Amino acid sequence: xxxxxxxxxxxxxxxxxxxxxxxxxxxxxxxxxxxxxxxxxxxxxxxxxxxxxxxxxxxxxxxxxxxxxxxxxxxxxxxxxxxxxxxxxxxxxxxxxxxxxxxxxxxxxxxxxxxxxxxxxxxxxxxxxxxxxxxxxxxxxxxxxxxxxxxxxxxxxxxxxxxxxxxxxxxxxxxxxxxxxxxxxxxxxxxxxxxxxxxxxxxxxxxxxxxxxxxxxxxxxxxxxxxxxxxxxxxxxxxxxxxxxxxxxxxxxxxxxxxxxxxxxxxxxxxxxxxxxxxxxxxxxxxxxxxxxxxxxxxxxxxxxxxxxxxxxxxxxxxxxxxxxxxxxxxxxxxxxxxxxxxxxxxxxxxxxxxxx
Length: 357
Hints:
Order of helices and strands: HHHHHHEHEHEHEHEHEHEEH
Family: Belongs to the GTP-binding SRP family. FtsY subfamily.
Keywords: Cell membrane, Cytoplasm, GTP-binding, Hydrolase, Membrane, Nucleotide-binding, Receptor
Number of strands: 8
InterPro entries: AAA+_ATPase (IPR003593), P-loop_NTPase (IPR027417), Signal_recog_particl_SRP54_hlx (IPR013822), SR_rcpt_FtsY (IPR004390), SRP54_GTPase_dom (IPR000897), SRP54_N_sf (IPR042101)
Domain SRP54-type proteins GTP-binding: 330-343
Enzyme class: hydrolase
């Protein structure tokens, strides 16, 4: 937690009035004392007020602006439904089509429409703009179960296993997450267990160097062996977090999915309480395919959290509604770009507001 303050400098102590020597030499000094001349007392000078300190901007305001920009393609398709002047069945039909086009899925779309009808009736809304605000509330409530923080510190080290298909932004997300953890004061060790993809180890090594954290890697080594060595090293060195980068694969590649299960078992041998988190990185542009990945990887690995990347410019941002309705795995982080600050913790209300802004 950060606090913004400015210390006030203490006011200087008042100077004692100067004492003048008697005038007229020793004779004057021996003369009987006369009534002292009145001494002008200087008026008290008020201590200067400290310069006003501007209140810090809301820490997530910049992020919210980027999120709104990233979800503009999704939100514009939904927002156009509310440009009319009437609340009728045509509005609900158009909204249903817009939600389906945003890849919200049939189940989540029907849930939102039913919930919205109830809210409109209870609020006695008569303006489409009011219906839009009620829809934002409905989406926020639907997404609320996905909002959960990633907890570090209950175990030392906290072993986080990260999976995902090639191209989802898995290794880059690990690098950004490493930076976030390091900025919070956590000591991190990376395990380069993606031994299948060319240059995967090198890419992770760049992030390790950039974030000045340790990395365990083996050229052409067995992924499970790398993980075992990394977890053992993390325990021996007293690291707070061990982040395990696994090879990207499609859930239909059964032999590679079995390799992931093997890695999880080996991590558990190195630390009987681990892995403590199993994260899946998914590309937000893939829409319903992202939901299929969540289901497949969850069945294989029992996921504890998601990182959803590349939401900037997507027209399929409604997929989070589908995930919340059909496979509510917590969403720890969402990303809207390549920069470090473009990965941030997920907030259901922020997402709903950005989606309909």
